UniProtKB/TrEMBL annotation:
Keywords: Lyase, Purine metabolism. Homodimer. This is Ureidoglycolate hydrolase. GO terms for biological process: allantoin catabolic process; purine nucleobase metabolic process.
Length: 166
């Protein structure tokens, strides 16, 4: 049986609207003291890794969503290009069987001049973009993709695939 394609509305990104999923990291003056608007990182469960990942364009459809239960993750486009991400809140982080509800999945357009930090356990799909290829700064643990990569296949579990809608 083929999955039903459903539109997912793109929400306005603000620190408040993104708070259930993570932190919006906006530019600020050099020397600004650490404060409540800064990203609090959880990188103590392994060796932190900052790298630039190069991604090709892919269909603007969300068939699966992923979470990392051991680490926060930071993402930003290298060339200042905007991009899209689908997210769901980090409920039941300690339960490896927990999965997000369809109604909890939201989409955001990330401007090219900000980064995001995903809370430990936040579900995410993306980055998605229109360009042929975009590189992203990615901060996570050195082995996140090998040992801390839980997937929920929306097309198989719910018979649903989300498509980004402006």
């Amino acid at each position: 049986m083929a999955a039903t394609v459903r539109p997912i509305q793109i929400n306005h990104l603000s620190p408040e609207s993104f708070a259930p999923y993570g932190t919006v990291i906006e530019p600020k003056e050099d020397g600004t003291p650490f404060g409540a608007e800064d990203a609090e990182l959880e990188l103590t469960r392994g060796t932190p890794r900052l790298y630039i990942m190069r991604l090709p364009r892919r269909p603007m459809r969300v068939k699966q969503i992923t979470r990392h239960r051991q680490v926060t993750q930071c993402l930003a486009s290298v060339g200042g290009k905007p991009w899209l991400i689908a997210v769901a809140p980090p409920l039941n982080v300690e339960d490896p069987q927990a999965e997000p509800a369809l109604e909890d999945i939201k989409a955001f357009l990330i401007p090219g001049d900000v980064a995001i930090k995903l809370h430990r356990g936040s579900w995410h799909a993306g980055p998605f973009f229109d360009a042929d290829e975009v590189s992203f700064f990615n901060l996570e643990l050195s082995n996140t993709n090998e040992v801390d990569h839980q997937n929920c296949y929306l097309d198989k579990k719910y018979g649903t695939v989300f498509e980004f809608k402006e």
